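Module 6 notes. Inverse folding takes a fixed backbone as the condition and produces residue identities as the prediction. Think of it as a translation problem where the source language is geometry and the target language is the twenty amino acids. Below is one complete input and output pair. Work through it position by position during the lab.
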């Protein structure tokens, strides 16, 4: 399997998978890193690794998965966080390669200088990446729920950081086709990319991620000094994946409109908790954003619970001019609002309200009655004031016309 991947033999890879080869068992951290270094290196990828490490690389420099993670974050942009740069992965990775690095430091052979330079590059990249992500944590999370105590948070954090190093499953990837897809895209192997896109889960998300990676790599290739067709080639690959994403959305929308809208706002844990809608916007995939499904979702998010399909615009305008007409408007039920995403604070507020309603039904009914009475009183007061102002304006106009003799 490794030879078939290195030599870009799609048919052989397909044949091996059809005959029972498990990619989950095959793909390990060591083998994936070997794929990045054994295959003919993409010049654009090598230049990107050099840029994210901010230094000149030795000719025989071996890229690490942490380097690849930094490149993916750079290409995806925004607040995207690759799994290769997370603390859990770093613990596993350092445990796998710690012995070889320590032996490399003590060796005095001809390759010791190269290994030392690679270690220094890795240490510098770790420090820069850690600083960058610490800045992200401080700036991108201004609102944090204060419901959990410090003890609960520390226990939860300690539980997340526990990694069983001896477990062989920690050295494998839960979704190997996702990792192989990104490898094929970064190595500029379109046929292999399309093959891995057809396997595994979250096809729409994979198509959007591949579209974004190809588009960003094409832009970086265009900025480089090398004059070739790589930039246009990557742009064509990006358009191909974008077309696949739009076709998937169209097919999903035809089968079930509500589920298609949920698919757009579903948080993808394997892709930095992003959503298909965010990925499409970051990829500047206009046909995807302009699709009927996306536009209906955006309209529902803008209108909120107001049911515009049953409320024509004249009712809304009438409610603005005559406030009591607000009672004529119809609103959506919770089931109809299930495809609309909620923020964490709104979700927490909804959960608290439901618990409060469960324990204090009588008090809530009384409160609703009081609020309804206050609302009706306010509406009547606004209506009286509005009527008084209208009559005053008309009276003043008539007096003015009579004075002018018109």
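Target side of the pair, the amino acids:
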């Amino acid at each position: 399997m490794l030879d078939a991947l290195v030599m870009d033999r799609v048919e052989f890879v397909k044949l091996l998978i059809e005959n029972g080869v498990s990619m989950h068992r095959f793909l390990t951290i060591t083998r994936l890193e070997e794929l990045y270094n054994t295959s003919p290196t993409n010049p654009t990828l090598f230049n990107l690794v050099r840029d994210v490490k901010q230094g000149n690389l030795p000719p025989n420099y071996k890229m690490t998965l942490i380097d690849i993670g930094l490149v993916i974050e750079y290409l995806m942009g925004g607040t995207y966080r690759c799994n290769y740069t997370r603390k859990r992965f770093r613990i596993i990775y350092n445990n796998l390669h710690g012995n070889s690095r320590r032996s490399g430091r003590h060796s005095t052979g001809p390759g010791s200088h190269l290994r030392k330079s690679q270690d220094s590059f890795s240490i510098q990249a770790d420090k820069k990446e850690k600083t960058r992500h610490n800045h992200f944590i401080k700036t991108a999370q201004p609102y944090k729920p204060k419901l959990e105590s410090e003890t609960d948070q520390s226990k939860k954090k300690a539980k997340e950081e526990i990694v069983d190093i001896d477990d062989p499953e920690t050295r494998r990837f839960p979704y190997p086709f996702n990792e192989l897809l990104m490898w094929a895209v970064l190595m500029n192997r379109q046929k292999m990319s399309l093959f891995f896109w057809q396997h595994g889960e979250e096809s729409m998300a994979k198509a959007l991620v591949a579209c974004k990676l190809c588009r960003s790599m094409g832009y970086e290739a265009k900025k480089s000094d090398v004059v070739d067709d790589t930039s246009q080639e990557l742009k064509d690959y990006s358009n191909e994946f974008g077309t696949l994403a739009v076709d998937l959305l169209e097919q999903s929308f035809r089968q079930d409109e509500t589920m298609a809208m949920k698919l757009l706002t579903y948080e993808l844990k394997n892709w930095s908790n992003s959503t298909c809608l965010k990925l499409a916007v970051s990829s500047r995939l206009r046909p995807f954003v302009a699709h009927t499904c996306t536009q209906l979702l955006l309209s529902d998010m803008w209108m909120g619970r107001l049911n515009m399909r049953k409320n024509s615009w004249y009712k809304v305008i009438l409610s603005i001019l005559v406030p009591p007409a607000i009672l004529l408007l119809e609103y959506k039920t919770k089931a109809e609002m299930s495809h609309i995403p909620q923020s964490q604070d709104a979700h927490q507020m909804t959960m608290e309200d439901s618990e409060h309603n469960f324990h204090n039904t009588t008090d809530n009914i009384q409160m609703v009655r009081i609020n309804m009475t206050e609302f009706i009183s306010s509406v009547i007061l606004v209506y009286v004031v509005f009527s008084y102002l209208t009559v005053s304006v008309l009276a003043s106009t008539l007096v003015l016309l009579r004075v002018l003799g018109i």
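Reference fact for the lab report: Residues 102-123, 125-149 have pLDDT under 50 and may be disordered.
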